[in-house]
Amino acid sequence: MRVAVIIPAAGLGTRMSRSHAEHSGISRKQFMLLDGSPILMHTLRKFAASSKVSEIVIALRADDIEWVNGMLAEEKLGKPVQVVEGGQSRQQSVENALAVIAPDTALVAVHDAVRPFIDAATIDKVIDEAAATGAAIVGIVPVDTVKQVQRNKVRATIPRDRLVLAQTPQVFRFDILRRAFEQAVTDNFTGTDEASLVERLDQEVSVVAGSDRNIKITRPTDMDVARLFLAQEKN
Q1: Which domains does the chain have, with CATH numbers?
Q2: Do the beta carbons of residue 129 and residue 158 sit within 8 Å?
């Protein structure tokens, strides 16, 4: 079964403070250094190590392609890696990556470039679930009480047992994901993740339990946690 992984990495990383980025010498979070390697490279290594993954496609800004290709040549991940030019949004970047995936691909996984602590067992579980059902995402149950508000006033408390915080990878049958993107273009719809596009097809999406270690590095304080998690992984 052929499984392709798309890593959209063309974002500008606007949540990371300017001072922190300048201190690191890197302007965007996916390229900030973690133990000497860009966060993106840590993420790629996790999927390259998976026996279930056939190829990886990275969507990048045009001016990053040559530099990243140079890093990939030195890294020798052991899996085919394609680099494509990304778009102005995550959705456009994933769409560009879908266009270069081989037609005989069974499943496509999409994973955030800045989630470098996804573990092998979770990758396997979400791929297996998508193979069985057509669509699956990784998610965790929120531990905090969730309030619905209007301006600064609480209007309701939302039961946590019916909520999950979506993570990645999000994995879909190739034909389903392609159809979801085509429908989004037709309807001029922009989603917050790939599952939100697939849901519009009335396709049921399964949830596989994730981990609170599968953090998305978006703020300066996340880098401190990332260094801790990496040190633990090494030990």
Answers
A1: 3-234 (3.90.550.10)
A2: no
Confidence of residue 25 (pLDDT cuts 50, 70, 90): very low
The torsion angles phi and psi of 85, rounded to 5 degrees, stand at: -75, 130
- The tens digit of pLDDT for each residue in 66-89 reads 999 999 999 989 999 999 999 999
In the chain, the amino acid numbered 13 is G
Long-range contacts of 121-125 (CB under 8 A, 24+ apart): 122/169, 122/208, 122/210, 122/211, 122/214, 123/46, 123/47, 123/50, 123/52, 123/53, 123/169, 124/50, 124/52, 125/208, 125/209
Q: Which of 80, 70, 120 is closest to 233 using CA atoms?
A: 120
